[in-house]
Amino acid sequence: MRGSFPTAVIVAAWLGTALPAPAAAQVKTRQGETARPQAEATVAPADADAKAGVETSPTEAPAQAPGRLPADAAAALVHAGAAYEYGDMNQVVEAARPVAEGLLPASPEEQNKAFRLLGIGLYLTNRPLGAKTAFTELLRRDPDARLDPTTTRPELVAFFESLRYRQLNQQRSARKVYWNFLPPAGQFQNGDTVKGWVVLGVAMVPVAELVTSFILLTKWRRPGNTSMHHDAAENLQRADWVAAGLLSATYLYGVIDGLIGYSRPLEESKPPVSVFLLPGGGGLGFTF
User: Fold this and answer.
1) pLDDT tens digits, 203-223
2) For the chain, how far is it from start to end, CA to CA, in angstroms?
3) In the list 80, 133, 160, 288, which could disulfide-bond 195, CB 3.0-4.6 Å?
4) How far is it, in rounded angstroms, from Cα 113 to Cα 77?
5) Rounded to whole angstroms, how far apart are CA atoms 55 and 64?
6) How far is CA 87 from CA 7, 124, 125, 166, in A?
7) Conformational region of residue 105, where left means phi above 0, alpha means psi within -120 to 50, and beta covers everything else
8) Residue boundaries of the structural domains of the chain
């Protein structure tokens, strides 16, 4: 028995050095079971969303890349108008510029609105040269354009009106008085385009008659200054007098109207329809 005691001690010591590693691993494993789920709970959802392609919330979404064009001109103008109401003039400029520069297909009315908003935005962001360019283009497209003084700053309205007045003076200096003696050239230079076409159309009727009569009378003429169609030739000559009178009246009207239009301020607008009263009733008049 005494000999077996040292042997038992040696065996126990040997087992003590062999067993601690697996036992420590088991202890560490048991301690880590409480921490591992927490770490996986914080990391796994993000990794899962990234692998599945799940979008983040709007507040965490990346901002739209600058320079990206809107869907169309109408959407751009809606965005520019909303930015103007909000007071963000930089956004007004960025939204209206693609429409004004033709990067987005737009109607003439949409382009005019874009130039208006672009000029306003540039002026209110301390870029008067750009605003001058935008407003000048707007006035070239629409000479009757105005800024609403009830919703626009007074200094901006004054700036726009000074550009409009300057452009009107340039147009007036480019006009020549002698064109009024060659109707309908006077009507066209005075801005009375419809009236100019009416004068031209009325004048073409007697001119056509005179030319036709001249050709026929020349063809019918015989030696000795006689005509092979005596009666028809006399009727044509009478028609020539009527045509000459109509042409003369049209010419006088064109000259007088051209001089009146030349003396009238360019910004003066004429109502297309007017109502007038007579002793026996009333009437409706059209102004061209």
Assistant:
1) 999 999 999 988 988 888 877
2) 140
3) 288
4) 8
5) 15
6) 95, 10, 11, 29
7) beta
8) 73-174, 179-286
